[in-house]
């Protein structure tokens, strides 16, 4: 089981849980069509062990229980979990983070998530895969092409949130774009990935009930924080009034995309992580792996690659060590150099490995900033270091004497400038070998990352086991 990353998910209850009873009774029932369609598609029935991730107040669990499934659920909002548990007393419903599911590997036959896993939370997919038994099925839904939906009006009040929140909402729905979800699930090692149509329609008796139901959701909380409760309600009521129909409920049909996929039936059919086979076992290979096993409890994919010739690895790290000494490079300076270099050449493995260490030492925001290239929280000297690493990695022929002078002006002497450049070049060599030979970041490493750092590594090879 992965370590629970820094507790960002705990803030979720503030938005989603503050009106748990209203969400459960007024909002969630509107989603019932998608639950029924997905359960039907996944053949949920008697004896199926099912987990619902981001289960909200547990209506989907209740419908799966009604079909005879034996259910578990998880949500970050403890107040929604309280409702879900009340609705499903025989089910194992827990409060927690979808990036660190508190169940053993291979526990469930089916895992569902209804608009709970987003473009901004793709790592949760790795956790879903882990807890599914080999051959188990997963089904998730996401918003589809909202603007092309006749009921798009019903989501409009969410756009009252602050600009960055609205931008985040847009990033969240990116999984609904054609091909994106299929690509993500295939890359994370699922088979038989299919995109299916999911019926989705909210119905309300009148604009006021609609506004009240909508106000109980997380995105509404963001809008209310921005414009206030009264303005939010007024806006929602006004929007809905334009859609009132004589003698019929308000009805908002919204495009929802469903993805269903299967975890490969045998463990040997796992993801391709190195294009070369593992080295033949030998005392030298065992010795090479010993450090990983002692420190991490598993052998890193890159060690399995370099294990075929440990001497090459030792020579390269000898050079990295020499450059470190020569330049008097501190841990933080090396973290800046590695993350800036690896991100520039789209090497996800070193970005994650050093992003994790950097975040632990200096905070996830600083590590994620260097990975993204924004460098918030760095001193001027550190920014010069990051800029130089990026220039060297991007195009060493495009550097100028002025660039070198900038390093001098930042306080580095010429020997240090030489050492820093050797250091960056040696890191590029390491990344190049890993990337060219298909060494994917370890799933354990990816799962241990702070979400901010994980989100910043939106490039390169996805994690594989
Ligand atoms: C769009 S709602 C979907 C809820 C429910 N599946 C439904 O159909 O109504 C998103 C849910 O994700 C939950 N959530 C957000 N971040 C989470 C996290 N990191 N781990 C687990 N649940 C999370 C929220 O509390 C919320 O219940």
Features:
disordered N terminus; Rossmann fold; binds S-adenosylmethionine; 465 residues; single chain; two-stranded antiparallel sheet; 22 helices; 2 domains; AhpD-like; alpha/beta
Overview in brief:
With 465 residues, the chain is an alpha/beta fold.
Give an account of the 3D structure.
- The protein has 465 residues and is an alpha/beta fold.
- The chain has two domains: 8-268, Rossmann fold, CATH 3.40.50.150; 275-456, AhpD-like (Up-down Bundle), CATH 1.20.1290.10.
- The chain is 50% helix and 12% strand.
- It has helices at residues 12-16, 20-27, 32-41, 59-66, 78-87, 124-131, 163-172, 180-187, 207-215, 218-227, 229-241, 283-296, 301-306, 310-327, 331-344, 348-362, 364-372, 380-394, 401-409, 414-436, 443-448, 451-456, and strands at residues 49-53, 70-75, 92-95, 108-114, 132-143, 191-198, 201-204, 250-253, 256-262.
- The strands form two sheets. Strands 3-2-1-4-5-9-6 form a seven-stranded mixed β-sheet, sandwiched between helices. Strands 7-8 form a two-stranded antiparallel ribbon.
- Helix 10 (218-227) crosses helix 11 (229-241) and helix 15 runs parallel beside helix 17.
- The structure holds S-adenosylmethionine (SAM).
- S-adenosylmethionine (SAM) is lined by residues 9, 12, 16, 28, 31, 54-56, 60, 74-77, 80, 97-98, 114-116.
